[in-house]
Amino acid sequence: MEKKTSNTNIFASKVGAILAAAGSAVGLGNVWRFPTETGEHGGAAFILIYVLFMLLLGVPIMVTEFAIGRHGGSDVSGAFEKMSGGRKGWRWMGLIPVVSGFLVLSYYAVVAGWTLYYAYVALMNGFAGKTAEEFQTDFEAFSSDSLSPVFWTVLIIAMTCGIVALGVQRGIERGSKIMMPMLFIFIIVLVGCSLSLPNAHLGLQFLFHPDFSKVTSSVILSAMGQAFFSLSVGLGCLCTYACYFRKDVDLMKDGLSVASIDTLVALLSGLIIFPAVYSIPGLQPDAGPSLVFITLPNVFQQVFGNIPVLAYLFSLIFYLLLVMAALTSSISMLEMSAAYFHKNLRLPRPLAAVVVSLVCMLLATFCSWSFGDWKDVKIFDMNFFDLFDFLVAKLIMPIGGMLMCIFLGWVVDEKVLRAEMTNNGTLRSPLYPTYRFIIRYLAPLCIFLIFANELGLFNFFTEA
Q1: Cα 405–410–411 angle (5° rounding)?
Q2: How far, in whole angstroms, is CA 86 from its chain's centroid?
Q3: What is the 3-state secondary structure (H, E, C) of 189-223?
Q4: CB-CB contact of 429 with 422 (8 Å)
Q5: CA distance 462 to 119
Q6: Which residue ranges form the domains of the chain, and what is each CATH number?
Q7: CA–CA separation, 286 and 303 (whole Å)
Q8: Across-strand partners of 382?
């Protein structure tokens, strides 16, 4: 039986640590981005490439964040200074999670708020009897409204704040232990229902049929990027959580566990979405929010229209699943900034969570208005939502991931790194030499390619 710790500032159990880290990685992108990327880029062929890059890129960078955070044991900024041997110049790297937390939660909460609203509509049976055109009109009207989406966005941030304010064990860990199992229960129920639908085999073919003719350099870059972005590495979420890891946690083993959970959720989401979509002739899966807020509500009503109770339950469980995925990720986003204010500015944890939440609510309001009244307000030719997304996904994540690899691969004393990876020699680590090679050479190169691809540099040179 696993021992638990009485220190409330670290995760009480190894299971709690894994579920919290997995909750951070599993988010809304697992539900709509991964299945669509898979179907459009060669099905099973894309999955194989993705899994390869998950092992060669995603897991090593995740373990890098784990190592930095746990070595510090208190806060991310102090962790960089401590692991560098007292070089104060690296302490500024600890600001990456602070900035990331504000930016990413501010725009992520907007879409998370949409999921909470749709769960409420499903609960009230508000989808019954609507046509495809009505779903399109309703979503456009809701997302562009000045007040309603802001209310749901503020509510999701408030829920997140309440969990973070309770602390590491009573809030983050307990919340993860409740929500992650619920998420898997919802997924399994929905997969079973979806696979029982007519023409479900067409959805499986779309998702898993290996088409190696589609594998190009662009597809390889997409798989590489999906492996990187899916785990939310580079932002500092996992680095922040690792500050609460126990010293006996096997970082490599837990990294593989988190990556496996993340990939499993993504694959199972595909087993929900595409058999359902292909059960209606003529419908094609679309990527992004339109898939889950317009296409799927229509699908649920058409497929189960003759059995209203099934349409009601399928819709409700699906949107509750989205809410769980959104919440587990938003908790880590808020924690990144709140932890800094709590530990460095000495604010009580509840006050730190409230301060960060209030700022994020204000910024999220601007992001929400980007779909309505402020859609023509541009900064660098982008509205607030797109600007925050650009800063996080195309700049902070790749640059942060690259700097973490350079830091651990070239700055940190090799003895310090080996001690962290082997728990001071108590663990055998046959993969350590391979891991060190990856973070020194392969990972920075791959992240640079992702960075260049996200900025469209390859397209620029091709067109030139």
Answers
A1: 100
A2: 32
A3: HHHHHHHCCCCHHHHHHHHHCCCHHHCCHHHHHHH
A4: yes
A5: 44
A6: 14-463 (1.10.4160)
A7: 18
A8: 379
For residue 322, give both structure tokens.
């989205």
Q: How far apart are the C-alpha atoms of 282 and 94, rounded to whole Å?
A: 50
Running DSSP on this structure, what letter comes out for residue 93? G
Residue 242: which of 42, 384, 421, 448 has the closest Cα? 421
Q: What is the pLDDT of residues 108-150, one digit of tens each?
A: 999 999 999 999 999 999 998 888 889 999 999 999 999 999 9
Question: Cα 252 from chain centroid?
Answer: 20
Q: Which two tokens stand for residue 225?
A: 């990027």
Looking up tokens 């998950």 gives 54
| Residue with the larger pLDDT of the pair 4 and 267 | 267
Cβ-proximal residues to 40 (8 Å cutoff; 6+ apart), any chain: 287
Residue with tokens 């299971």: 15
Instruction: Give residue for tokens 């990027």.
Output: 225
Contact predicate 236/63, CB 8 Å: no
User: Residue 122 to residues 164, 293, 319: CA-CA distances in angstroms?
Assistant: 27, 12, 8
Distance CA 69, CA 12 (A): 17
Residue 387, pLDDT score: 94
| Rounded Cα distance, 292 and 183, in Å | 17
Q: Give the CA angle between residues 18, 23, 29 to the nearest 5°.
A: 135
Q: What share of the chain is helix, strand, coil (3-state, %, to 5)?
A: 75, 0, 25
Measured distance CA(168)–CA(298) in Å, rounded: 40
The 8-class DSSP code of residue 5 comes to: -
Distance of CA 82 to the CA centre of its chain: 28
Cα 173 vs. chain centroid, distance in angstroms?
Answer: 17
In sequence order, the β-bridge partners of residue 379 are 382
Sequence-distant (≥ 6) Cβ neighbours of residue 204 within 8 angstroms? 271, 274, 275
